[in-house]
Design goal:
- About 60% of the residues lie in helices and about 0% in strands.
- It is an all-alpha fold and about 240 residues long.
- The protein folds into two domains: about 35 residues; about 150 residues, Lysozyme, CATH 1.10.530.
- The radius of gyration is 24 Å and the shape is elongated.
């Protein structure tokens, strides 16, 4: 028979174990509640991340609630560290016109389409930075901007990614490459536009590997965000 002292020690130990179990369950419940009630900006977390691969790999390994909770979450009303300047649409028009004349390599971009992408990406905020580190009015990853700066140095004014002309020029070059990548796959201009815009959001490689989308039919059936993004941008074009 156990002595009174040993029984008391066992009772304390069992109570402590019960407390730890309850605390763990409560912590998990709080995490789930916070994920349900917090507007987690996953769009900005995955945007254009195929170029570095780092964020894509992080997302691919995100399989538990606790891992997701550790990812950076922000309110949609507080996506930028500082209040960015905002341009009026009419002030951006001449800049887009100039950029189209200099940077529209394959002729796919139009002023209306560029305006739609800007509205979707930054709402004309010029120095906004996303959670994924996409920057500027057309929300380009610095790596992507740097690649076009090297390939087409004569098309840029300087190396400032936040310069509105520079950012739009690189955005147009990137958009044209997204179109070019799907030319042999798409069977109509509408399908080509959908594939190109979805690729603008996550990259051509990202669309194929991360979302397993290889043609317009698969994209149209997809419920993933790149498909929704492409349709949202095109809806903006139609509504203008």
């Amino acid at each position: 028979m156990l002595s009174k002292g040993i029984r008391e020690i066992i009772a304390v130990a069992l109570t402590l174990l019960l407390f730890i179990s309850v605390a763990g369950n409560l912590r998990d419940a709080i995490i789930v509640r916070d994920l349900q009630n917090t507007d987690v900006v996953m769009m900005d977390t995955v945007r254009h991340t195929n170029y570095t691969g780092q964020m894509t790999n992080t997302l691919a390994q995100t399989t538990t609630t606790s891992t997701i909770a550790r990812m950076q979450t922000v309110s949609r009303d507080n996506q930028q560290a500082s209040q960015p300047s905002v341009l009026a649409k009419e002030d951006v028009d001449p800049i887009i016109k100039q950029a189209l004349a200099q940077c529209n390599t394959y002729g796919y971009a139009t002023a209306t389409l560029v305006h739609s992408i800007i509205g979707q990406e930054s709402d004309y905020r010029t120095n906004v930075v996303s959670v994924a580190n996409a920057k500027g009015i057309m929300q380009l990853m610095p790596e992507t901007f740097g690649e076009y700066l090297v390939l087409y140095p004569d098309k840029f004014k300087n190396n400032d990614i936040f310069d509105v002309y520079n950012n739009i020029c690189a955005g147009i070059l990137y958009l044209n490459d997204c179109y070019k990548a799907w030319e042999s796959t798409a069977t109509s201009m509408d399908d080509l536009a959908l594939l190109a815009l979805a690729s603008y959001n996550v990259g051509v490689t990202g669309l194929k590997t991360q979302y397993n989308i290889h043609n317009a039919d698969e994209l149209k059936k997809s419920k993933e965000f790149p498909s929704k993004y492409a349709k949202q941008v095109l809806d903006r074009v139609i509504s203008k």
